[in-house]
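Hi there,

I know you've been waiting on this one. I reran it after we fixed the sequence typo, so this is the corrected version. Both the input and the resulting structure follow.
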Amino acid sequence: MTQATVMNLNTQESFKVAKGAPQVIIRLVGGDDDAVRAVNALAKRGLRALGVARTKPGSTEEYELVGMISLIDPPRPDSAETIRRCNDMGVDVKMITGDQQIIAKEVAHRLGMGRVILDAGHLVDADKSEEEVTEHCIRADGFAQVIPEHKYRVVELLQNRGILVGMTGDGVNDAPALKKANVGIAVHGCTDAARSAADIVLLAPGLSTIVDGLMTSRAIFQRMRSYALYRITSTVHFLMFFFCITMALEWHMKPILLILICILNDAATL
């Protein structure tokens, strides 16, 4: 919440103005059911709200609600396609946001994700065991109303189950989770703190670059696996051949000849 004092220079009258999260402003004015319904209606449409209040005339501490400002922060155009391609490649995508749970569900629906969105309070529920919290975390499609500590907690819970976790972020508050994740990905335009904590820094805007990175990395590992398999089979074949010759014919190979054969074998591989 942000507060400011406004003064009329002609009359010397002043009043305080406050803006911030709807729930904070509504609590500041002593509650307002109509405002709560308005905020929920906006949230169902995927719109954020910013509450504004001012002190009542003749008072310096008692506030009255001025109104709610609706804000839209739509996902990037490539987000839905990126998530779909990640799912096709066997990567489970979870959304982490500081928005309300209702907004998170609407955004998840637009992106083609599941709508099992947990409130961040489930991550620190003292009435549930660590095993139960971890199970909820695995089944969830996203988390709402999170703070930096919750992001770190999500990564930690998933890793405790042996899941490899990749985390994207761009701000200072994302740095701990980026550092904790198996693969920290700092997006385009990130802060220096996020860049330092990440393993990968995206130079192009959007999330579609992540899919390109996945495809490239998998191609590299496949080539490494193929090369290792070829080298093992080639070496075994080489050893078995000369072992049989040596045992059957009592033939002794000169060291220089062995080195030459190994070099020629490697050259053929290249």
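Quick highlight: Residues 224-269 form one domain.

Best,
R. S.
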